[in-house]
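Title: Prediction job returns without error message
Component: structure pipeline
Severity: low
Priority: P3
Assignee: unassigned

Description:
Job completed but the reporter wants confirmation the result is attached to the right record. Sequence as submitted:
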Amino acid sequence: MTDWALAAGGGDREAADRFVRATYEDVRRFVTYLSSDAPGADDLAQETYLRAMSGLARFAGRSCARTWLMSIARRVVIDRHRAAAVRPRTADTADWQTAAERAQPRHLPGFEEYAAVLDALRRLDPARRQAFVLTQLLGASYAEAAATAGCPVGTVRSRVARARRELAGQWRAEPEEGGPGAG
């Protein structure tokens, strides 16, 4: 993967295509979990690749290309949150929450489970969620996750362990409410 990124930085379009195809699903899942915005994940992934492709010529391969790409994805999500925080929100209905809930797909296979896991992850501290998603869902090594988060490996291990405990506590605490442990 890193070889494809380096070749793409040198102008090899085939290598760029391979790099994107090999990493797209991981980037999409990562931005989905970090942002808690499944419908907007494709936009976030696309923004990640726009930034990455414009910076490929400067990518020197000092780290794994996947780690470099996930760092860009993380910054894209942070930038999106910052932009959303300063943007005014308007609604043309008094009951906007009910309208939003009705617009969500409900009868898709695995929807309830997906929604429950996303909700459980959303409750985690953002740093713990990032470490958990990178290592447990995307399969990144602890070293790669540490490089992405800009912290020591031991911190990532601690965050993942705490995230596991918190998630397990959520599953035990909510079975009667239809939470992640229900069913």
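Comment from assignee: result matches the submitted record. The chain has two domains: 1-86, 110-183.
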